[in-house]
Amino acid sequence: MDKLLFFINKTYAAGSIQPYTPTCGKTDDCIATYLGTIATFLTDFVAALAVLFIIIGGVLLMTSRGSQTQTERGKKTLTYAIIGLVIIILSRLIFFLITNNLSSFFG
Question: Would you kindly state where each structural domain of the chain is located, as residue ranges?
Answer without folding.
Answer: 23-106
